Amino acid sequence: MQRLVLVLALLFPAAALSEPISGYQFMEPSTRQLQDDDFLNPAFFLVERGRQLWDGAWPGAPEGAASCQSCHGAPESSMRGVSARYPALDPATGKLVNLELKIQSEIARKLSAEPPQYESADLLALTALIAFQSRGMPLDVPTGEKVAGWLAQGEEIYTTRRGQLNLSCQNCHGEHWGQKLRGDTISQGHSNAFPIFRLIWDEVGSLHRMFSWCMEAVRAEPYEYGSEEYLALELYLADRGRGLTIESPGVRR
Amino acid sequence: MCLLPLAANAGDVSSVPLTSTPGDPARGQDIVRDTGRASCLICHAISAMPDRDQGTLGPSLDAIATRYTEAELRQRIVDARTLAPDTIMPPYYSNEGLVRIGSRWAQSTIYSAQDVEDVVAFLMTLGD
Ligand code: HEC
Ligand code: HEC
Ligand code: HEC
């Protein structure tokens, strides 16, 4: 164990072991290069697709109907820093929402359109577009009394052993990061690059899809995408990764 | 990493094979490497096996038969929690106390009784 810590300290000299380390640092150089170059990044097309959705009338709506653009203007200015502080309490409802749920409710309420489903290409595209506007900014989710219950629930889920393999998120990403789980080097499991193109999925997926993947890996029953459990977990993860810079849209093995 | 020595009488239960059919080491090796069946190689390395991407979460199982008896190996596979409650090694033949097992898997344990015997027989071939 001591040797492992030493090796890791040599591998990641910039980060004291108590500071969060991005999953990027655990990737092969070839995978990092894919993320580093917007032209090679296989998730980047979503940013462009998101921009088309942002600018124009919502598919099916009459020409000239309201759009994200008609209220918010260019995302480069209006959405700068937004994803860094999500999930957050929605001023409209007082409930905790992540970016995906907020976008869905904007489409339902402000565009009076049928919101795209969780994990659909359209929702991933708008999520990627907005998250991209916070690239390079540190994760900085709200804390304090109003979200304390959510954070506690997230921690509870994170540390509960589950599934037939009887492992918690903490067992793998807190206690055994840096070690080999079959072909993967286990990272600290941070949320700062989502949505990500995952090479083993061969497509882009949301953070909640990743949660379900990890739960199924230990043969546990996953929760629903967008569920309270996943929102709590998402908030807890963002708090745990506080200070990490946003890489969205990311690329992972 | 804590490697607890076996309690003196802990082998009592596991010294009895779980089935009357003797373990088949060849079948055991197939089970051990099967990625669809919570492969031991997720976490352990066995250098006698050519399989790529062996894990490092647990100790190497090389020469494991020189360190443990058949009964001790059986007990670890059946439920390693009986030896170390905090172990991260999954219980292969017990669902007791497990939380939110996915519905696809909840009807049975990871291994059947015969699987356990076959895997034990395979591990017993890992000598010097
Ligand atoms: C059996 C080990 C294991 C468990 C338990 C586990 N994960 Fe993972 N997780 C992995 C592996 C392997 C990967 C892919 C490699 C990596 O980035 O760590 C991964 C990746 C991730 C990532 C993506 C990291 C990135 O940089 O993009 C997140 C987020 C994550 N896990 C969260 C969780 C959460 C939340 C839980 C609990 C519900 C959990 N994991 C449980 C093994 C595990
Ligand atoms: C009719 C005007 C209008 C339209 C159309 C509209 N929005 Fe908004 N949006 C607002 C207002 C006002 C707010 C701030 C109050 C709130 O959160 O509801 C907001 C808030 C947001 C936020 C949260 C920002 C923050 O700082 O927390 C996001 C993200 C967002 N909108 C995305 C979108 C997207 C994506 C679309 C198009 C699919 C869209 N909006 C369409 C008016 C609009
Ligand atoms: C999720 C990780 C994981 C999996 C999967 C796993 N083990 Fe383990 N195993 C461990 C760890 C960690 C230890 C170290 C002792 C402990 O914590 O109980 C261990 C210890 C052992 C030991 C004792 C080794 C020693 O040197 O003392 C044996 C034997 C063993 N495992 C066999 C197996 C077999 C056989 C399988 C598959 C049927 C398996 N393990 C699957 C993690 C795992």
UniProtKB/TrEMBL annotation, chain A:
Going by the entry's taxonomy, the superkingdom of the source organism is recorded as: Bacteria
* Start and end residues of each Cytochrome c domain: 45-134
E.C. number? 2.8.5.2
Which positions are annotated as binding heme c 1? C68, C71, H72
Instruction: Detail which positions bind heme c 2.
Output: C169, C172, H173, C214
Q: What catalytic reaction does the record list?
A: S-sulfanyl-L-cysteinyl-[SoxY protein] + thiosulfate + 2 Fe(III)-[cytochrome c] = S-(2-sulfodisulfanyl)-L-cysteinyl-[SoxY protein] + 2 Fe(II)-[cytochrome c] + 2 H(+); L-cysteinyl-[SoxY protein] + thiosulfate + 2 Fe(III)-[cytochrome c] = S-sulfosulfanyl-L-cysteinyl-[SoxY protein] + 2 Fe(II)-[cytochrome c] + 2 H(+)
Determine if Metal-binding is one of this entry's keywords: yes
GO cellular component: a single term: periplasmic space
Annotated GO biological process: sulfur oxidation
Q: Give one GO molecular function term.
A: metal ion binding
What is the annotated signal peptide range for this record? 1-18
Q: What keywords were assigned to this record?
A: Electron transport, Heme, Iron, Metal-binding, Periplasm, Signal, Transferase, Transport
The record's InterPro entries line, in alphabetical order, gives: Cyt_c-like_dom, Cyt_c-like_dom_sf, SoxA
Q: Give the principal location in a single coarse category.
A: periplasm
Its annotated function is as follows:
C-type diheme cytochrome, which is part of the SoxAX cytochrome complex involved in sulfur oxidation. The SoxAX complex catalyzes the formation of a heterodisulfide bond between the conserved cysteine residue on a sulfur carrier SoxYZ complex subunit SoxY and thiosulfate or other inorganic sulfur substrates. This leads to the liberation of two electrons, which may be transferred from the SoxAX complex to another cytochrome c that then channels them into the respiratory electron transport chain. Some electrons may be used for reductive CO(2) fixation.
Family under the similarity heading: Belongs to the SoxA family.
The protein here is known as SoxAX cytochrome complex subunit A
Species, as recorded: Aquamicrobium aerolatum DSM 21857
Task: Give the lineage.
Answer: Bacteria, Pseudomonadati, Pseudomonadota, Alphaproteobacteria, Hyphomicrobiales
TrEMBL record, chain B:
One GO term in the molecular function aspect is:
heme binding
SUPFAM superfamilies given for it? Cytochrome c
Record lineage: Bacteria, Pseudomonadati, Pseudomonadota, Alphaproteobacteria, Hyphomicrobiales
Q: Which Pfam families match?
A: Cytochrom_C
Q: Which UniProt keywords apply?
A: Heme, Iron, Metal-binding
Question: Where is each Cytochrome c domain found?
Answer: 23-127
**PROSITE patterns per UniProt:** CYTC
Is the keyword Iron in the record? yes
Q: Does the keyword Heme apply?
A: yes
Per its record, how is this protein called by name?
A: Sulfur-oxidizing protein SoxX
